Amino acid sequence: MNEVAHMLAELADDARSYDVLDAVLVRARRRARQRRVLLVATAAGLVVTAAAWLSVAGPRADRGQPVGDPGCPAVLAESPGPGAPTGTRPGAGRLTEPCAAAIARLSAALPGVLRDSAPGAALPVPPSLVQLRWRTALPTYEADAVAVVGGVRLTFTIQLYYDRDEPPVGTPMSFGPSGEPAEPTLYRSTNQHADGTEVSVDVSGPASMDELRTLGSAVARDPRLTLFP
Amino acid sequence: MRDEEFTEFVRARLAHLSRVAYLLTGDHHAAEDLVQTALLRVATRWSRVRAAEDPVGYVRKIIYHEHVSAWRRRRPALSDRPEAALLSVPAGRDEAGDVVTRLMVRDALARLTRKQRAVLVLRYFEDLTETQTAAILDCSVGNVKSQTYRALARLREITGALDQAQEVRR
């Protein structure tokens, strides 16, 4: 065994001291630089992917999701169904505080905005506000308000602009049905202005899509229609 | 990476690492490559190496692993390049016997497997125990024993044959 050790020691004497330090340092620095670039690129890629995902998933959550879909966080409140007590909001438990405050404001305002005048009954319809969907965050809230009027689901898209110098003001931006008319009935949309005046738009008879659009357009175009005094 | 610390660490050990690498490879170019590759790995993990309880052991482990796993980028073995053996005989040495012995040993080592060479160098050059050798090579002590036994047997066999060839040449 000693002989082997001796042989190895003798052979090792032939070795040079390889001067590789500079080369190692240069290559190590280059690798560190490459790793940093890779990390930054990976992080950027993740950010871009997340942004792309959000840009797709965000609107999807706001549009066309079934009411009460647990996968749709934008569904903030949903209809308690016909005959349910006024003001019931089963989905309200999921609201964040600023959303809840804004919805309370909307809920207070919408009954004065939209009234259901079904044949034989003229009832205020707070429960007909079946769904509110929050799209965006402050300073501009955008919400879909879905109301059932005489069995027809109507969708309002409402934008709330918050300005430091102005009180919160809401403007109906668009209006359109998201369902077919169920029964021939009379619709009346009453919009209350800040000064207390009311503007009503009536649609009589079997409501067609066109009629509902007309109603919507009238609501949207009326310059006095300010939802939130 | 802190260049100064790394530089100091490497300078203190470069000579020994070079000797080990030369024994493992039997070729100056391959040894230089091995040292450089191993040190590069150390440099990229320098914070971990520095924090290790036994940084020298860590580096040793890297160089042996690098050598054993180097089959992927295997250079032609020394035995395949007889002219390299002649060219790399150190100048200025005139003790024919020493030179012949070195050539024999190097040739014999070159004919062992990489792991057998690693085991021999660790056990008889670095003077480590079987347990320490097993820890560095990530294998069992039994494996170290069997590799050592086979390596020595093969070494005897080869050096015997080389001895005979030398006799015939004379």
Helical segment count of chain A:
4
- Beginning-to-end CA distance, first to last residue of chain A: 101 Å
Largest beta-sheet details of chain B: none
- Shape annotation of chain A: rod-shaped
Output the strand order for the largest sheet of chain A.
1-3-4-5-6
- Total strand count of chain B, please? 0
Q: Quick gist of this model?
A:
Chain A is an alpha+beta fold and 229 residues long. Chain A has four helices and eight strands.
Textual characterization of the structure:
The complex is a heterodimer of chains A (about 230) and B (about 170). Chain A has about 230 residues and is an alpha+beta fold. In chain A, about 35% of the residues lie in helices and about 25% in strands. In chain A, β3 and β4 form a beta hairpin. The longest helix of chain A is centred in the first third of the chain and has 42 residues, at about 20-60. Chain B has about 170 residues and is mostly helical. Chain B has helices at about 5-25, 30-45, 45-50, 55-70, 80-85, 95-110, 115-125, 130-135, 140-170. The longest helix of chain B is centred in the C-terminal third of the chain and has 29 residues, at about 140-170. Residues about 75-95 of chain B have low confidence and may be disordered.
